[in-house]
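Writing this down once: the sequence line spells out the residues, with the fold written below as integer tokens. I am pasting one below:
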Amino acid sequence: MERFSERAVVLSTLDYGDADRMVTLFTAGRGKLTAFAAGARKSKRRFAGALEPCTLVRAQLVERRGTTYRLDSVDVERSHAGLRSELALIARALYCAELCRELVRDDQPHPELFERLVGYLAELEGGAAGPTSLLAFELDALAMVGLMPRLDACAACGGPLADGARFDPESGGAVCALCAAARAPASAAAPRPVLDGLARIQRGEKVPLGAEARQRARELLNLFISHHLGRRLRSVDFMAQVGTD
């Protein structure tokens, strides 16, 4: 059995039996993996406070037969305790963790996305994440796993987006009025300022978007993400409950 150490972000946990816990980690070198933490709910020495979602750790792991690893111990690099002082912050953090968990397949390294998640969690905790930073994270995450929506031209025909453009996840992003009428009758309304703002954010620009435009932009990205994952992320509803766009 191979023993190894990985820098990792805790994405989620699931209680198992009376004392154990299954832990989903996003590691720097091996991507997403699930680890069995024996006695994690009782051990104060090995795991106390270290397995909270969004915690950045150095994990000591053992490769087992099958797809599950054994988590022997962890050293906390950054607990992100500051995020847990405000519901809006923890809602954003949990959303990003769930998004990464669902976008990434087991044992497929995504070092760029790992570093992006680590950086964004630090920005959130440090108060440096601006109003459109979550949109930027979503677009970056999608691009890094090969699911970048087309926002600068019609995803169906490649033509320009004029008034009447809509958003169709099945076509791959924004669609012009003609393609929306012919090929995407179930597409969603997408105001041009929202599409233009998303396209600029996608290019790495810092774009000021008002609250209403941000909310609509997030709704469009939620449609796109839900289409590709086959379901709506649970943390989206939590963000809505706490008033986070």
